[in-house]
Design a protein that fits this description.
single chain; alpha+beta; seven-stranded antiparallel sheet; 7 strands
């Protein structure tokens, strides 16, 4: 029998109360150490939700420091060429609330930033976001409302950064997944070529 939790009180009774440190660690402004973390981070996850509650989590990656710090309460993330679905961007237009999770390879703790986002198509600081000749056509401007560091337990449990745990070949290649699930009409050799050497040449194209 499935037993569902239906109230915050029941959830708290089950999980217990957070420690004083965990409850009070939230901040609303970037500290110098947060700036250093953002300068070292090459990757983050951006969580959004539409007006109807539909959710999206999008990975964002670039050279370390790609998240541009504009001041103690504002950061910006550049757009880079992708699949053009723009799910997260469309969500932001409907609902500005976003959650960001910044990672540093090899580190088991993460930096979490929650806030309100806007889409900007141009600003004086866009030039600072140019990478390999690619000047973004838009950026996500985030007003920081909540910031804190998340404990390392999930990364330690999963052994995510331990090379001996990596199994990249446990599933078929990206090209094979596309052939099976997304584009069965495509030629496999063309897909292997597209997601092979050719793919690296188009990261900023």
């Amino acid at each position: 029998m499935t037993v569902e939790i239906t109230s915050a009180e029941e959830l708290r009774e089950l999980l217990g109360t957070p420690t004083e440190h965990a409850a009070d660690k939230e901040r609303t402004r970037l500290h110098e150490l947060d700036r250093q973390w953002l300068a070292a981070s090459p990757f983050c996850l951006v969580a959004t939700a539409g007006a109807d509650g539909s959710c999206d989590v999008s990975p964002k990656g670039d050279p370390p420091g790609f998240a541009l710090v504009l001041d103690d309460t504002t950061i910006a993330l550049p757009e880079r060429p992708g699949n053009r679905r723009a799910d997260g961007y469309r969500n932001i237009l409907e609902n500005p609330h976003v959650g960001l999770l910044f990672m540093i390879p090899g580190r088991a703790d993460t930096l979490r930033i929650n806030g309100r986002a806007r889409l900007v198509r141009d600003a004086p600081w866009f030039a600072e976001m140019t990478v390999k000749g690619h000047r973004p056509v838009l950026a996500v401007l985030v007003q920081v409302e909540q910031i804190f560091y998340h404990c390392p337990k999930s990364f330690l449990r999963s052994a995510l950064w331990k090379p001996e745990s990596w199994r990249p070949d446990v599933l078929p290649s990206r090209a094979r997944l596309v052939k099976e699930l997304e584009a069965p009409e495509k030629d496999m050799a063309d897909l292997e070529r597209h997601y092979g050497p050719d793919y690296l040449k188009k990261l900023y194209a």
